[in-house]
Design goal:
GO terms for molecular function: aralkylamine N-acetyltransferase activity. This protein has 236 residues and is α+β, with helices and mostly antiparallel strands. The chain is built from seven helices and seven strands; from the N terminus they run βαααββααβαβαββ. It starts with 22 loop residues before the first strand and ends with a strand.
């Protein structure tokens, strides 16, 4: 799950020029939870293509994310970008480390607490994730870095924060023995970034083909030009 900005969101403030040392990339801390959830509620939830295609309210997506975020924050490979002059979190990547005993980031075990729209979102995420299993494709792989959700405050976009955060995730993952990084990239902008960073697309899933409970639930016209998800893999 990933978000990006549209051209209409670009403002004079977004075009400010920053220096590389204006930002610090660091591991997430549990005490950052509230600030991180504010970031994802304001800048991820309204722009994530699947949420847009299902016409979900940002509060619906935020509630769903908050359930997993508490676990993702504890993962040592989850990182955030801090704007140093204001000591403000302006970007983040939630991650999970998968192994052969725990191969999923998303599941449908207990989704009754969510709205029908969010239940559909979870089912779609499960379909996308289960469509390509690295453990089944490569018997030598035992530990995987899963990039679960990425976002950046659009006021600070254009400063390669996704690149820097991803590189830090990968560095830590290698230290922890991860052999592969993978992500289900749902946004066309981030798909471009992943390719530039050496991720290989192993599978493309067109949104117009996704069915849930016998219907095709996604309004493609509301998805800001993103027409499909890519499953990416990168050997570390």
């Amino acid at each position: 799950m990933e978000s990006s900005k549209t051209k209409t969101e670009v403002s004079t403030e977004e075009k400010r020029i920053f220096q590389e040392n204006d930002f610090r990339i660091e591991q997430m801390k549990e005490e950052y939870f509230e600030e991180l959830m504010t970031l994802y509620t304001e800048f991820f939830a309204p722009r994530e293509p699947l949420g847009c295609g299902l016409h979900l309210k940002k509060e619906e997506i935020a509630k769903f994310l908050s359930q997993s975020a508490k676990e993702w924050i504890k993962c040592r490979t989850s990182v955030c970008a801090i704007y140093v002059p204001e000591n403000k979190i302006v970007g983040a990547i939630f991650t999970k480390i998968l192994n052969r005993n725990d191969q999923e980031t998303f599941n449908e075990e207990d989704i009754s607490q969510f709205t029908p729209g969010v239940q559909t979102l979870i089912k779609i995420l499960c379909k996308i994730e289960s469509s390509y299993n690295v453990f089944e494709q490569d018997n030598a792989v035992n530990k995987i870095l899963e990039v679960a959700a990425t976002t950046v405050d659009p006021s600070f976009s254009g400063n390669k924060l996704v690149y820097r955060m991803t590189e830090e995730c990968e560095r830590i993952a290698r230290e922890l023995g991860c052999q592969v990084a993978t992500t289900q990239s749902t946004n066309k902008i981030t798909q471009h970034i992943r390719k530039k960073m050496g991720f290989e697309s192993r599978l493309r899933i067109e949104y117009q083909d996704i069915e849930v409970d016998g219907v095709k639930p996604l309004d493609i016209s509301a998805m800001n030009g993103t027409t499909g998800a890519n499953i990416f893999v990168k050997y570390l």
